TrEMBL record:
Co-factor binding comment: Binds 1 FAD per subunit.
Family of this protein: Belongs to the class-I pyridine nucleotide-disulfide oxidoreductase family.
Family annotation (PANTHER family): MERCURIC REDUCTASE, NAD(P)H DEHYDROGENASE (QUINONE)
This protein's name: NAD(P)H-quinone dehydrogenase
InterPro entries: FAD/NAD-bd_sf, FAD/NAD-binding_dom, FAD/NAD-linked_Rdtase_dimer_sf, Pyr_nuc-diS_OxRdtase, Pyr_nucl-diS_OxRdtase_dimer
Residue positions binding FAD: 55, 128, 322
GO molecular function terms listed in the Swiss-Prot or TrEMBL record: flavin adenine dinucleotide binding; NAD(P)H dehydrogenase (quinone) activity
SUPFAM superfamilies, alphabetized: FAD/NAD(P)-binding domain, FAD/NAD-linked reductases, dimerisation (C-terminal) domain
Key words of the record: FAD, Flavoprotein, NAD, Nucleotide-binding
Upper taxonomic lineage: Bacteria, Bacillati, Actinomycetota, Actinomycetes, Micrococcales
NCBIfam families: PRK07845.1 (NF005883)
Pfam families: Pyr_redox_2, Pyr_redox_dim
Length: 474
């Protein structure tokens, strides 16, 4: 039957992570006929191996350190039935912890699949690939292939851990982050190769869980590309907590020798541990997708090029998430998936402003940021002034014995409009939202300062920083 413009729109989504899930849900809500092809589980790597289990593991690490924090505030812990003050020891049963994390992830994946099905989305278990700009195939296993007509296709296939040929993971002692959740026992000595966000988060978590940790950083400091003051705070905390941080050290090879792993650095020195986590970046899952045949353009690294409404070089094909050349965050994947479908189906699509994306690094303390960065301001890419307010001056922080961290605010010279900020604090992920709102809504430092912050509260540090920038408008 000939297709008539205005017929029910066939939307096919390949990949059910944050990008694909949101695209499918939005499509169903807008009345499209939606098919989602997913090969592993709805929720994607974000739910099954990346965000959900890692943040749940970090919650365990935080719980493990609470007794020590309480002691610093003067809480005495007594041996049962005595007045003897003891320093409590703790042990992590990693097998039990991991089973809980995987179950949490599995359940969330099932809940998300159920939500999609309730909205009328057809979920196809299989591996999707583009046939052309109006047709998608799903390999269902056993040689079976299903084909779908697509008025619009959204490709949201994510990425997988990068592996170095000289440091191949064996799933037992040399691991990618997706393999950590099968460990039964806490690594005695975990060597983390790569000090980007993934490496820093796991190094912090495993140190708090009780492992000896060595972090191998190829740059001169951890968290390259992040706010320098923030990275300095984290590195100081890591060192204070007994982590070994090797900077300007590139891992050339990682090999297993019995129950040990040996990491050889580029200067020839070796580091020996019980386990090694490879956190050296990700590769987009775009090989074999039929992109070239469909004339979808990619970058040299295989990321799909998209514009601000997530459209690719082919107007009927959109792409969202880690397989694109945008910022690899679950929140961005979500926004791209939604925006793509709004745009394709003729609803009001807001082009995505990457500058306004709030992000957080779940180390301890956390680092949250939004907007322009200090280095961009210093390079003259944005006109702004910078104010840094140390948390140790904040009354609530003093009460809670928080000594590390700060709130940093960036405001446009003259107008005083908030253009960015960084928060380094426990739960910085919760504190960044007022700054994200200020950046999105172009609030001035005076408007932020005039809002009431609860006294005493850590958000008071945000209004105090905004107040300190008041003179800008003068
Ligand atoms: C350790 C770690 C922690 C992270 N923590 C955070 C965090 O705290 N906050 C945050 O915002 N971001 C975080 N991220 C980033 C986040 O995980 C990604 O940005 C997010 O998963 C991207 O979503 P996506 O939909 O693009 O891809 P994914 O979540 O990877 O989903 C893609 C899906 O596509 C499927 N697929 C692939 N190819 C095909 C095919 N051909 N056919 C059918 N299905 C296919 C896969 O099975 C997968 O289910 C973290 C990343 C890592 C590695
Ligand atoms: N909390 C979060 O939101 C969160 C958490 C994890 C990841 N992510 C997302 O994933 C993205 C990627 O982060 P990532 O840390 O996985 O990858 P990355 O590419 O940012 O970092 C990998 C690091 O490994 C280093 N490296 C590579 N080879 C090495 C070697 N042989 N020896 C030593 N170091 C080596 C690189 O120089 C780099 O600094 C982030 O930008 C972020 O968007 C987000």
């Amino acid at each position: 039957m000939a297709y008539e413009f205005g017929d029910r729109h066939d939307l096919v989504v390949i990949g059910g992570g944050p990008g694909g899930y949101e695209a499918a849900l939005t499509g169903a809500q807008l009345g499209a006929n939606v098919t989602l092809i997913e090969r592993n589980g709805v929720g994607g790597s974000a739910v099954l191996t990346d965000v959900v289990p890692s943040k749940a593991l970090i919650a365990v690490a935080e719980a493990a350190t609470q007794a020590a924090n309480a002691q610093r505030l003067g809480v005495e812990i007594l041996a049962p039935g005595t007045d003897e003050v003891i320093t409590p020891d703790y042990r992590i049963d990693l097998g039990t912890v991991n089973r809980r994390l995987l179950e949490l992830a599995r359940q969330q994946s099932l809940d998300m699949a159920a939500t999609l099905e309730k909205q009328g989305v057809r979920i196809v278990e299989g591996t999707g690939r583009l046939l052309n700009h109006h047709a998608v195939a799903a390999d269902l296993g056993n040689g079976e292939v299903a084909e779908f007509h697509a008025d619009t296709t959204v490709v949201s296939v994510g990425a997988h851990p990068r592996k170095l040929p000289s440091a191949m993971p064996d799933g037992e002692r040399i691991l990618t982050w997706t393999q950590l959740y099968h460990l039964e026992q806490l690594p005695e000595h975990l060597i983390v190769v790569g000090s980007g966000v993934t490496g820093a988060e796991f190094a912090s978590a495993f140190r708090h869980l009780g492992s000896e940790v060595t972090l191998i950083s190829s740059r001169d400091r951890v968290l390259p590309g992040q706010d320098e003051d923030a990275a300095r705070v984290i590195e100081e905390v890591f060192l204070r907590e007994g982590m070994h941080v090797l900077s300007k050290s590139r891992a050339e090879s990682v090999v297993r020798e019995g129950d040990e792993v040996v990491v050889t650095l580029s200067d020839g020195t070796t580091v020996v541990g019980s386990h090694c986590l490879m956190a050296v970046g990700s590769i987009p899952n775009t090989a074999g997708l039929g992109l070239e045949g469909a004339r979808v353009q990619t970058t040299a690294n295989g990321h799909i090029k998209v514009n601000r409404v997530a459209r690719t070089s082919v107007p009927e094909i959109y792409a969202a998430g880690d397989c694109t050349d945008f910022f690899p965050l679950a929140s961005v994947a979500n926004m791209q998936g939604r925006t793509a479908v709004y745009h394709a189906l003729g609803d009001a699509a807001q082009p995505i402003k990457l500058r306004n994306v709030a992000s957080n690094i779940f180390t301890s303390p956390e680092i949250a940021s939004v907007g322009w960065t200090q280095s961009q301001i210093e390079e003259g890419l944005a006109q702004g002034v910078i104010y840094k307010y140390p948390l140790e001056e904040n009354p609530r922080a003093k009460m809670q014995n928080i000594t590390d961290g700060f709130v940093k605010l960036f405001a446009r010279t003259q107008s005083g409009t908030v253009i960015g900020g960084v928060v380094v604090a426990p739960k910085a992920s919760e504190l960044i939202f007022p700054l994200a709102l200020a950046v999105e809504q172009r609030l001035t430092v005076d408007q932020v300062a005039n809002a009431f912050a609860v006294y005493p509260s850590l958000t008071g540090a945000i209004t105090d920083a905004a107040r300190a920038l008041h003179m800008l408008k003068g």
